[in-house]
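To: structure subgroup
Subject: Chain for Friday's discussion

All,

I'm putting the inputs and outputs inline so they're searchable in the archive.
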Amino acid sequence: YGRLISAGQLMEQLEEDLVFYHVSGGGVTFSGGEPLSQPDFLLELCRGCKERGISTCVETSGFAVPEVLERILPWVDLFLFDYKETGRERFRREIGVSPETILGNLARLDAAGKRIWLRCPIVTGYQDRTEHFERIAALSRRYICVEKQELLPFNSLGRHKYRQLNLEDPTEKTPVPSEKQVEDWKKQLRRLRCRNLEP
């Protein structure tokens, strides 16, 4: 289910696809888990990529000490910034941490002029609220470096893992939204205008 690998070993594997990065205009995305929880490893890889002309992207929840973020900023071209909930009290209750660190890091990325895609998971009955979409729109307008917002509807792709591990699936009764419902959410987000709400 996994193996230990050094940054140097991984960099060698990434270099094998150099021709594809250059032809496609693509690059390497560091995801997780949370990549910022392994800052030294991530920094070495991002530096290695940039030295070889490989575009870099980091997918993050934004939950990291600011110093970690500052260290990798020069080496990352695009941040996929997951934002799971809005409204401070609801954020604390549903996510389990205060939103201040995450919002502060989003502001830091914007101030540094980094490209940002805001990615927002949507679970029916939780985040499919008009107020939530209003706050996403407000957040996107506040930070000029947010190039776009992506809604990520709940899917059932992980359910087989629970079965394989003989674990109870906590998402068993969570509905998978229809394509029409997802399109309605996207239309709603596009229609909304900032109403000066705090994210």
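Points worth raising on Friday:
The chain has a mean pLDDT of 91.
The CA atoms of residues 82 and 119 lie 5 Å apart.

D.
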